[in-house]
Every structure is written in structure tokens, then in C-alpha cells.
Write a structure and sequence with these properties.
Aspartate Aminotransferase, domain 2; alpha/beta; single chain; four-stranded antiparallel beta sheet; 2 domains; Aspartate Aminotransferase, domain 1
């Protein structure tokens, strides 16, 4: 990855914390200028998040040396920009409609964004992407299942882009736990330019702890660790992540409930006269094309129900995005829709 990373990152000497320098076991810690009186929070957190990564390995089958943990997936996205993109010189490629933070992070870092719209069936236009790419195309972002459309990107298309794109290919799998298809993590051992993003915010129900995962080659993970703050994942987040991962069976039960509710809404929403189309989804939401989207959005807000208005997003004209709630919440949504008058 040296030829892709920025020169200042290649030569960067990362900050070495006291706990990075220590190996072995000890009872007395006088190395990090901490408050010595134990209150459960007086010590710095494990900078390598060893226990959390070990548990992730058990769940995902990815070794710890291929795992980076960030303050949400957004931290990994930001670090990717800073590691690989020279401001004012390099650019990234995104595939609208897609997750908005790719653009925001690029704008913050002074990195140009080339946009190649998805096709009408929400799949990447491979020839257009490769035609737009050059030596300054450092990162290609593929969101699968895609937000806001909900569909998974064809695995063969993803692999072709990994093989033919000369930069880093980031596959954002925030919603993978709701999809029938397999994760792209199997590509990590095959291709050195792949980064897979996942999160604890969706299926795992831990959006509040802000913990994201990046899976990649050891070379890319070492670059992440070079650039990240030394203690980027705090003690409470690590503890809550371990507690959450201990409830694996309960999480899967809730995911199955969400999938059943998604199927219910897919079947019932088309019965409303103002619903034009319900797009197929592999995520925990549905993209729905409706008549008078702005009016319907305001109607639901007035009923105390907040959804996402995506009607001005490219290829999503007239569309609203409905997150799948609990059964009683979804029933309230359906009841509110019955009172909508065009």
C-alpha cells in the first residue's frame, strides 16, 4: 500500500503511548501519569482493544491483526481520506445515491469527489467507473446493502471493481446483518486493496456507543493504527461492546423480527393508492416511491412519526425511506398512512 498512501503518512512516526510500550503483566502502574485512585475509569483504555477484537474474531472469523476499531464507521472513513488522499490532488469515487458521509469527509479533507451514478436498477456502472478513474483515484466507495436504496450490490460486480480499480475499494456493509448474501470479508485474504466497513449501530443495537469496524490487510490496518489517536476507543465503549456481543442469540432474534416486519410492510404498503413502488431491500429499511412525498412526510411528522425524506436525492425522486421499527411502531405507521388525504 506504500505507493497509494500519502508520503507524509508513509514517513509518519506515530505517537507511542505508555501502554503501547509495556508488555507483560504488572500490579503497579506508574507510567502514564494517571490518577492512582481506582474508580473503574482512572486508567487509560487498552489502545489496541485486544479483548474486543478477539471477540469480533470469534463472531466474524477475521483475525485481530486485520481489524481496526473506530469511533463509528465515520472515523474509518475519515482516516481513509487522510491516509490515501493528498488534498487538492487526489480524489475519491462515489456511487450516488449513497451514504452522505463519504462526501462530507472528502469536503473536510479537501479531497475532490467524482460521482458516477448507479444504474436504474441501483447497480454500479463498471465501465463508467473505470473510465473515470486515473492515477489520482485513490478510493472507491461501494455501499452494500446500499443506503438509501436498500439493495445489495452484485458480488461479481464488486469483485470485478476490486480487480480492476487501481486504488482502495471500500465496501461499506453497515446493513450486512439484514442481508441474505454473504459478507465481502472473504475478499480480504485475496485482495490487498479491500477495506470492509461494518458497525455495531444497526443489527447489534448499539448506535449509542459509536463503534465501527474496518477489516483489511495487515498493511492497511497498520496505516490506520499509525494515524488514529492512541486511545480512540474509550473504556465504556469497549465494555459495552463486549456486553453486547455476549447477547448474540438475542440479537439474532431481534434481527429476525425486523426481517419479518420488513416483509409485512413490503406486502402492505402497496395497498395504499399513493404508493407507487416499494423497492426490494436487504437492509432494515424500505425505500418507497409515493405521490406527494413532502406532504406525506409532514403528515407523518404531525402524527409523531419521523421518517427520512429522500425525494430530492438522485435516482430517488418522490421517495421516502422507512426504517423498520418494532411491530407496534410499524402498526402505528400503517394506521397513520390510512388517514393521509392527497
Amino acid at each position: 500500500m506504500d505507493h497509494l498512501a500519502r508520503k507524509n503518512i508513509q514517513s509518519l512516526q506515530p505517537y507511542s503511548s505508555a501502554r503501547h510500550e509495556f508488555e507483560g503483566t504488572a500490579e503497579i502502574f506508574l507510567d502514564a501519569n494517571e490518577n492512582p485512585f481506582d474508580n473503574g475509569m482512572n486508567r487509560y483504555p487498552d489502545p489496541s482493544q485486544t479483548a474486543v477484537k478477539k471477540r469480533i474474531e470469534e463472531l466474524k472469523g477475521v483475525p485481530p491483526n486485520h481489524i481496526f476499531l473506530g469511533n463509528g464507521s465515520d472515523e474509518a472513513i475519515d482516516l481513509l481520506m487522510r491516509i490515501f488522499c493528498e488534498p487538492g490532488e487526489d480524489h475519491i469515487i462515489t456511487l450516488p445515491p449513497t451514504y452522505g458521509m463519504y462526501q462530507v469527509s472528502a469536503d473536510i479533507c479537501g479531497v475532490e469527489v467524482k460521482k458516477i451514478n448507479l444504474t436504474s436498477d441501483f447497480q454500479p456502472d463498471v465501465s463508467a467507473i473505470l473510465a473515470a478513474a486515473n492515477i489520482h483515484s485513490k478510493i472507491l466507495f461501494i455501499c452494500s446493502p446500499n443506503n438509501p436504496t436498500g439493495n445489495s450490490i452484485d458480488r461479481e460486480i464488486v469483485e470485478k471493481l476490486i480487480q480492476e480499480f487501481s486504488g482502495i475499494v471500500v465496501i461499506d456493509e453497515a446493513y450486512i446483518d439484514f442481508a441474505a448474501g454473504e459478507s465481502a470479508t472473504s475478499f480480504i485474504g485475496q485482495y490487498p486493496n479491500v477495506v470492509i466497513l461494518q458497525t455495531f449501530s444497526k443489527a447489534w443495537g448499539m448506535a449509542g456507543i459509536r463503534l465501527g469496524m474496518a477489516f483489511a490487510s495487515e498493511e492497511i490496518i497498520s496505516l490506520f493504527n499509525k494515524v488514529k489517536p492512541p486511545y480512540n476507543i474509550n473504556v465504556l465503549t469497549q465494555e459495552k461492546a463486549l456486553e453486547g456481543m455476549a447477547t448474540e442469540e438475542e440479537v439474532y432474534e431481534k434481527v429476525n423480527t425486523i426481517l419479518a416486519e420488513r416483509t409485512k410492510l413490503e406486502a402492505l404498503l402497496p395497498s395504499f393508492s399513493f404508493v407507487q413502488k416499494v423497492y426490494p431491500s436487504d437492509a432494515n429499511f424500505l425505500l418507497v416511491k409515493v405521490d406527494h412525498p413532502n406532504k406525506l412526510y409532514k403528515h407523518l411528522v404531525a402524527k409523531g412519526i419521523v421518517i427520512r425524506n429522500r425525494s430530492t436525492v438522485v435516482l430517488c425522486d418522490g421517495c421516502l425511506r422507512f426504517t423498520i421499527g418494532q411491530p407496534k411502531e410499524n402498526n402505528s405507521l400503517l394506521e397513520a398512512l390510512t388517514t393521509f388525504v392527497i
